[in-house]
Amino acid sequence: IQLVTTLLRFDDVYYLLFKCSKRRLRSYYNLTSYLRELYQMPGVASTVDMDQIKDHYYSNFTSANPNQVVPKGSSLSSFKLQHDRDQKFSPKSK
Questions:
Q1: What torsion, rounded to 10 degrees, do the Cα atoms 1, 28, 53, 82 define?
Q2: How many CA within 13 A on the CB side of residue 83?
Q3: Which of 35, 52, 57 minimizes the C-alpha distance to 44?
Q4: Non-local CB neighbours of 4 within 8 Å, separated by 6+ positions
Q5: Using one digit for the tens of pLDDT, what is the confidence trace for 51-78?
Q6: Is residue 18 within 8 Å of residue 64, measured between CB atoms?
Q7: What is the DSSP letter of 63?
Q8: CA 24 from centre of chain
Q9: Which of 1, 7, 58, 80 has the fewest CB atoms within 10 Å, i.e. the most exposed one?
Q10: pTM of the predicted structure, to 2 decimals
């Protein structure tokens, strides 16, 4: 569950601002599904403030963003979409 903070920030901060990957997280189906599962766990969504996260990174890392432009970014609604991890990774009935 510690990975949730990195996964949540990946597309909007690490990919766009720091250019640390050739592809966005959403390009990876299983990771995106895993993030949705984590986000939908009780108590997780209420701790996520993407506007504050983006404001912090895009305003404080002036070497990567000298004009301090904060992009609109992704919508949190995509994290609320159905994931199939419970069907894919649940123990099979014998």
A1: -70
A2: 23
A3: 35
A4: 35, 38, 39, 44
A5: 999 999 999 999 999 999 999 988 899 9
A6: yes
A7: T
A8: 10
A9: 1
A10: 0.84
